[in-house]
Amino acid sequence: MASPSPHDRRRKDDEDDPIERMISRTGCAELHYSVQECMAEHQDWRVCQNQVQTFKDCMMNFQKARKEQLMKQQPTSTESAPS
């Protein structure tokens, strides 16, 4: 039986990539792909600063919301703190 071709896009490699999974959970995946497409097209990160900034803003908003969510889950009393 022949090995699958590395160019066979029917395999779901992206779903197995932990970075891709992490970004997709943030809601910023489309912006990430926009940065990648710009970089592939222009081969110069300086040309892609608008895409990079938009992606960065999205990620920062996600991180802020996540931090706020985690803070709400923290116990508000000091009962669990060691004495």
Strand content: under 5%
How many alpha or pi helices? 4
Structural class, judged by helices and strands? mainly alpha
- Distance between the first and last residues' Cα: 64 Å
Largest sheet: none
* Tally of strands: 0
Average pLDDT confidence is 82
GO biological process, one term: mitochondrial respiratory chain complex IV assembly
InterPro entries: Coa4-like
Protein name: Cytochrome c oxidase assembly factor 4 homolog
Region (Disordered): 1-21
Describe the structure.
This is Cytochrome c oxidase assembly factor 4 homolog. This protein is an all-alpha fold and 83 residues long. The protein has a domain at 18-70. The chain has four helices and no strands. It is elongated. It starts with 12 loop residues before the first helix and ends in a 10-residue tail after the last helix. The model has no long low-confidence stretch (mean pLDDT 82).
